Amino acid sequence: MAVALLAKMPGLGISSVLILHVVGNMDRGFGAGSLVAAFWTAGAGLGAPLQGRGLDRYGLRKVFGLLVIAQSLFWGMAHFLPFPALVATAFIGGLTTLPAFTVIRLALANMVTEENRHTAYAVEAITTDVAYMAGPSFGILLASLASPTVAFLAMGAMLFAAGGAYLLLDPPLKAARPAADGPKPRLRSWLTARMMCALSITLATSIAVIGFEVAAIGTLQKSGQLQWSWLLLVAAGLASVAGGFLYGGMRRPPSVFAIGALLGVFCIPIGLATEWYWLCVLAVPANLLVAPALSASAGAVSRLAPDDSKGVAMGTYASAILVGNVIGSPLAGTVLDHGGPAASFAAFGTTAALIAGLAYLCDLRLRGKGSDNTPGARSEQLESSGAPQ
């Protein structure tokens, strides 16, 4: 978990550091910086399933050996590149970034017994919350106190250290062994209709999380209270951590679909807040469900995937989070600009809740028909995702 946290922090802070590097070192605007960050994100979204497939077939050390070399080259050289070259190499950097989220979830699926797995995933989701709070803050702090170049190199050093630690530890990835010498698993063997339902919850959760961040910060900025944004983000992060602990301690956790739908619904009333302190208070119920939603959907994806495809399935899970970010951020921002805070929170909250509700209805119908014939689909009941079987 400690190594995973070390790898997640720079992964979540990279966008901020890239933007500050472009703005501070290249004297370009935030639009140009956001373009570089977008290319990084696009590369990471495409690379996650490919890296997962590599973990399935070749194991951790072969894949991470190549990725650590690629990341060392990117972070060691990219800050010298002119802007057009940086845009192109940012995509390659994202494509070859360390799959920290995928590896830790694969390791937990193999190292933890099934009855305790939802607790393990909850703890893993808590480390993600800590990384969300610490990663961007660490990068921005370094860029402010030292320089964007120092922050740039520090992020690269953290990724290099995390990659080296993974190579030394070589955590057991169950999917990497049986598939190494066998035929390549077919897409239909793991990307079933019920898998799509589970990934839809991941998508809905990501839309709600990024939508909350954009709408909340925008609300504070429009009301002249931006100086309290740090307190809001800390309150949201602590609420998510608390929710993760509560979820991890449950013997029979609630439905993954219910968690996802409630997360979206609880985001809607946050838009009624006009003062920063009410924003902090109303943000607590929704953020209590963030870690449980991520944990439950990760557990569902892991259980539905066959052993020889868990890596690519968890990589696709990571891509679903990125796709949710791509959808949720402009949705919340555009509605905020044209309709105000209440409309923004209602827009992305309703979207997330509807996706979760439709996923539940789809899964309910599929279970009734018994349409999926994979072992994971036969055994897993997503309506009680995470509960002991």
Summarize this structure briefly.
This protein has 389 residues and is mostly helical.
Features of this protein?
single chain, 389 residues, mainly alpha, Growth Hormone, Chain: A, 15 helices, 78% helix, disordered C terminus, transmembrane helix, MFS_trans_sf
Can you put this structure into words, describing what you see?
- There is one protein chain.
- With 389 residues, this protein is an all-alpha fold.
- It has 2 domains: 2-173, MFS general substrate transporter like domains (Growth Hormone, Chain: A); 189-384, Up-down Bundle (Growth Hormone, Chain: A).
- Helix content is 78%, strand content 0%.
- The chain is built from 15 helices and no strands.
- It has helices at 2-26, 30-58, 60-77, 83-95, 100-111, 114-145, 148-169, 193-222, 229-248, 256-267, 276-287, 290-304, 310-339, 341-369, 375-379.
- Helix 6 packs antiparallel against helix 7 (148-169).
- The chain is globular and about 60 Å long.
Tell me the overall shape.
globular
Q: Biggest sheet: strands, sense, closure?
A: none
Number of strands: 0
The CATH topology of the largest domain turns out to be Growth Hormone, Chain: A
State the order of secondary-structure elements, H for helix, E for strand.
Answer: HHHHHHHHHHHHHHH
Q: Residue ranges: pLDDT <50 for 5 or more in a row? A: 175-180, 373-380, 385-389
Number of helices: 15
Estimate nothing, just give the exact number of structural domains. 2
Kindly provide the radius of gyration, computed on alpha-carbon positions and rounded to a whole number of angstroms.
20 Å
